[in-house]
Amino acid sequence: MTVRVRIAPSPTGDPHVGTAYVALFNAALARQRGGSMVLRIEDTDRGRYVANSEQQIFDTLHWLGLDWDEGPDKGGPKGPYRQSERLPIYRQAAERLLAEGHAYYCWCSPERLQEMRAVQTANKQPPGYDRLCVGKTRDERARLPGFDPTPVIRMRVPDQDVPLTFNDLIRGPTNAPMPDDQVILKKDGFPTYHLAVVVDDHEMDITHVLRAEEWISSMPKQLLLYRFFSWDAPAFAHLPLLRNPDRSKISKRKNPAARLLWFQEEGYLPEALLNFLALQGWSMPDGREIFSFDDVVANFDVERFSPVGPIFDIDKLDWMNAEYIKALSDAEFVRRCGAFLPGPEVDPGVLVLAPELKTRVKRLKEVCEQVEFLYQGKIELDVALFGTGNPAAPAALLAAESALEPLTADRFDVAAIESALEAAREQRDWKKGPFYGPIRIGLTGKTRTPPNFPMLAALGRERSLARLRDAIAQLNHA
Ligand code: GLU
Question: In sequence order, what are the beta bridge partners of 6?
Fold first, then answer.
């Protein structure tokens, strides 16, 4: 059997982290089995449709290094891959169910349905459509209150033998609640999710559905539809939901990390995020924590999922991201910093400072503040920052300037800077704090920065001396 999997995101806003989570494991299964992955855009809910969301889904998944074989952007033999372009297929399927007695027209107005629900709630009855329209012609129904001339189509849930248990690849035999007569085709001619997902998974020859746990409750409806159509259902695995620390489902409202773009904005490396996502409810057989997508492919097995929803632990992600950052070459690190630098150009000092920065930042976003000193023009010193000390700030700055002056530009590296400054300090018998503190402030105007030696090396000889001299001048005029 050729494995065919799909991801089926809805373009309802900027992409959810769960989309990447589900995509990761679908892609791993497809790759491991030499199968194919379909990306299908489930855009049938026109009220929630957001125009640029589809492109953001493509872009963020590509950013993570995930790819698919068939989709709206790639085409493929089973297209179109946007549900909004498949309306005749769903209409035909709904009509087949009507003809075979598995579906019926419902003319109930939204107001009537609302009243019905209010009564059910007040009487503590289970919610669900009361089947007023079942067995009625349009004319018969029109004579009753709450009639809407444009009908929907509802599936007819049988009174007996509804598939309320199914075998989940992760959870084993799994129960789901009794469904009511769901709308399958809406007034606007669009299908609802349940009809579209079943028709498309069948038409697209999907063999394995790996999707979020929240769809377990939909299984009876979907399995009924497979039965009505006499189609074989694919295998199902419901992946654990990612959870907030309070165990609630991760949502954009409660947690910025629900937005996939947030990880880009913060400067997480895509390979670190992918690794982290792979550890949510899943694990490597050898317990390794740092591993690549290829390792997931080689070791993927749905049985290695724990059905308990993992807590999304950003501290752990920060740790992992720091590990991935440290492992980058200096040049690659600078390349990745691109968008996080304070200016459009890459100052050459960033590369000089890279070994230092790589050990200091957990998210690339932090680089901006760390390298700001390289992008500053004239530094307006707040002389109060120097305080009073021994030696006085001007003496420290003068000593540093004359110690560094003899170094040549091509030997202005951390080791040479350190030995020149240390020699100057020891000669005068000064303590480190009162000597290096003023240098730091003189170079940057700030008290919290990366260490002086790499900072001086990153600035280079000319800029370093100019800043020290300018600081001395500003202090003298203070
Ligand atoms: N469109 C659904 C979603 O956005 C897909 C659910 C499924 O994979 O069946 O999550």
Answer: 38
Distance between Cα 213 and ligand 1 center (Å): 10
Same fold, 4-83+242-304 and 86-239: yes
Which stretch of DSSP H or E encloses residue 54?
A: helix 53-63
CA 319 / ligand 1 centre spacing (Å): 31
Q: Is residue 218 lining ligand 1, measured as CB closer than 6 Å?
A: no
pLDDT value, residue 392: 83
Query: Atom 3 in ligand 1: which residue has the minimum CA distance?
Result: 9
Task: Give the full edge-to-edge strand order of the sheet including 4-7.
Answer: 36-39, 4-7, 208-212, 235-239, 165-168, 172-175
Residue 215 Cβ inside 6 Å of ligand 1? The answer reads yes
CATH number of 376-476: 1.10.10.350
Contact partners, residue 224, CB within 8 Å, separation at least 6: 155, 157, 158, 162, 163, 179
- Which residues are designated catalytic? 252
> Residue 53: CB within 6 Å of ligand 1?
no
Q: Which amino acid is at 318?
A: D
For domain 4-83+242-304, give its CATH number from 3.90.550.10, 3.40.50.620, 3.30.530.20, 2.60.40.2470. 3.40.50.620
- Averages of pLDDT over runs of 10 residues in the chain (478 residues) are 96 95 98 98 94 96 98 98 98 98 98 96 94 97 97 97 97 96 96 98 98 97 98 97 87 88 98 97 96 98 91 94 98 96 96 96 97 93 81 91 97 97 96 94 93 97 97 88
SS (H, E, C) 185-234: ECCCCCECHHHHHHHHHHHCCCCEEEEEHHHHHHHHHHHHHHHHHCCCCC
Q: Which atom of ligand 1 is nearest to the CA of 19?
A: 10
Best mutation site among 4, 5, 6, 10 for ligand 1, i.e. most ligand atoms within 8 A of its Cβ?
Answer: 10
Q: What is the pLDDT of residue 476?
A: 86
Tell me how far the alpha carbon of residue 19 lies from the centroid of ligand 1, in angstroms: 9
Q: Which atom of ligand 1 is nearest to the CA of 211?
A: 8
| Predicted local confidence at residue 389, as pLDDT | 66
Domain ranges for the chain, please list them: 4-83+242-304, 86-239, 328-374, 376-476
Q: Is the CB of 197 under 6 A from ligand 1?
A: yes
Residue whose C-alpha is closest to residue 28's, from 284, 234, 314, 312: 284
The domain defined by 86-239 folds into: Rossmann fold (3.40.50)
Is residue 8 in contact with ligand 1, taking CB distance under 6 Å?
yes
Q: Could you report the per-residue pLDDT of 247-280, keeping only the tens digit for each?
A: 888 888 888 999 999 999 999 999 999 999 999 9
What pTM, to 2 d.p., does this model score? 0.93
